């Protein structure tokens, strides 16, 4: 199959990482796979080694939506399957399906639902016109089917793939020491872009109430527009020695190997890449409720879901995990790793995509 994956820009987000991973894995499976972006560059563009890719803009205009010659590129490429990743690319998906039909191409255009917030009207209008839609969680599929009336037979759920599956055999005490964490320090870790909906400010306010008797640190990895406000909040709460802003990490796996508990307060998710990666590295999780959260861990065994606006419950879950005996931690870590590797293994998810592509091609109407 000739597969074209479309993404607006390679910013440092989970969807962008998934787009790169899928393009690479489709190619490794023997398919002519390439990644088409609107804008060149981006934080994750350094990870394109071995991936066939091109950008529509000859230089970066800083306009995510500007896709010059997109329709012509699709006509010239004539892919068997076109997979749109991210909100901006999906806004073009319906038009691309119409373009393919007019050009006499049998291209199957597939939209994706990968967010937990209300969709803009143009997004909804666009993906109503594509051949099929992939949601990355059962929660997201149910929400969008109910909210927007998508027919269940036009949607398939395929979970995210693990991008950083490698696991360190022991906790990385050297990295902990670099950030001032002692062997007895409970390191709470959150990896996400700094955007208001990701909830880092709520997380900071919540952990500020942890008892003084607990030796803890909160590591916040990532970057984005909400970071300066979060840094000011941490300083105003007198948490300069407790909260570490680690910046962007192209590969956060070493952070998982140095942390003790994954914490997450995002309000808008469909399936959290961070939480499934944390599980793969054996970290128990405490997360605020959002779409797909229950699918990221084994509720009550390897992860705990907490309502937003309930900091006492959040802190109580953190304290229970921090005080758990060693044997309980070991058993929980093993169960988390097993769960994540069974449910989010890249080979399993890529196979699901390829099976879907073949089925849709087999039942495609004549162009």
Characterization of this structure:
With 367 residues, this protein is α/β, with parallel strands linked by helices. It has two domains: 2-161 and 345-362, 3-Layer(aba) Sandwich (Rossmann fold); 173-343, Glycogen Phosphorylase B (Rossmann fold), CATH 3.40.50.2000. It has 13 helices and 13 strands. Strands 3-2-1-4-5-6-7 form a seven-stranded parallel β-sheet, sandwiched between helices. A six-stranded parallel β-sheet has the order 10-9-8-11-12-13, sandwiched between helices. Strand 6, helix 5 (138-148) and strand 7 form a beta-alpha-beta unit. Helix 3 (87-102) packs parallel to helix 4 and helix 10 packs across helix 12. The model has no long low-confidence stretch (mean pLDDT 94).
Q: Under CATH, the topology of the largest domain is which?
A: Rossmann fold
Oligomer: single chain
Radius of gyration using CA atoms only: 21 Å
- Using DSSP, what is the number of strands? 13
Principal-axes geometry comes out as elongated
Total DSSP helices: 13
Strand content: 15-25%
Sheet of most strands: 7 strands, parallel
User: Helical residue percent?
Assistant: 25-40%
CATH architecture of the largest domain: 3-Layer(aba) Sandwich
Q: At the first level of CATH, what is the class of the largest domain?
A: Alpha Beta
Category from helices, strands and their pairing = alpha/beta
Work out the count of structural domains.
2
How far apart are the termini? 17 Å
Following the backbone from N to C, one meets helices and strands in this order, namely EHEEHEHEHEHEHEHEHEHEHEEHHH
């Amino acid at each position: 199959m000739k597969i074209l994956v479309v993404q607006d820009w390679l910013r440092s987000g989970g969807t962008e990482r998934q787009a790169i991973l899928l393009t690479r894995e489709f190619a490794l499976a023997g398919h002519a796979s390439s990644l088409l972006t609107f804008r060149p560059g981006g934080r994750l563009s350094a990870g394109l080694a071995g991936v066939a890719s091109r950008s529509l803009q000859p230089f970066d205009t800083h306009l995510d939506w500007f896709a010059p010659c997109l329709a012509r590129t699709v006509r010239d490429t004539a892919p068997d399957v076109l997979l749109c990743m991210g909100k901006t690319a999906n806004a073009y998906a319906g038009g691309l399906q119409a373009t393919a039909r007019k050009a006499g191409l049998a291209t199957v255009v597939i939209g994706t639902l990968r967010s937990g917030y209300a969709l803009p009207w143009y997004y909804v209008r666009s993906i109503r016109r594509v051949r099929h839609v992939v949601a990355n969680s059962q929660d997201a599929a149910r929400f969008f089917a109910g909210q927007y009336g998508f027919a269940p037979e036009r949607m398939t759920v395929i979970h995210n793939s693990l991008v950083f599956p490698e696991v360190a055999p022991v906790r990385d005490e050297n990295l902990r020491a670099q950030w001032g964490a002692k062997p007895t320090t409970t390191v709470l870790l959150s990896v996400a872009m700094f955007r208001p909906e990701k909830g880092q400010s709520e997380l900071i306010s919540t952990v500020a109430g942890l008892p003084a008797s607990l030796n803890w640190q909160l590591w916040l990895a990532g970057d984005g527009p909400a970071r300066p406000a979060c840094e000011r909040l941490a300083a105003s709460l007198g948490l300069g020695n407790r909260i570490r802003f680690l910046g962007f990490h192209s590969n956060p796996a070493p952070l998982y190997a140095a942390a003790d508990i994954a914490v997450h307060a995002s309000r808008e998710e469909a399936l959290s890449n961070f939480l499934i990666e944390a599980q793969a590295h054996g970290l128990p999780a405490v997360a605020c409720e959002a779409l797909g959260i229950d699918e990221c861990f084994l509720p009550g065994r390897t992860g705990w879901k907490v309502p937003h606006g309930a900091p006492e419950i959040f802190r109580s879950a953190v304290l229970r995990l921090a005080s758990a005996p060693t044997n309980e931690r070991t058993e929980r870590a093993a169960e988390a790793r097993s769960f994540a590797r069974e449910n989010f293994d890249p080979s399993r998810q890529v196979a699901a995509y390829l099976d879907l592509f073949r089925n849709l091609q087999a039942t495609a109407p004549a162009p």
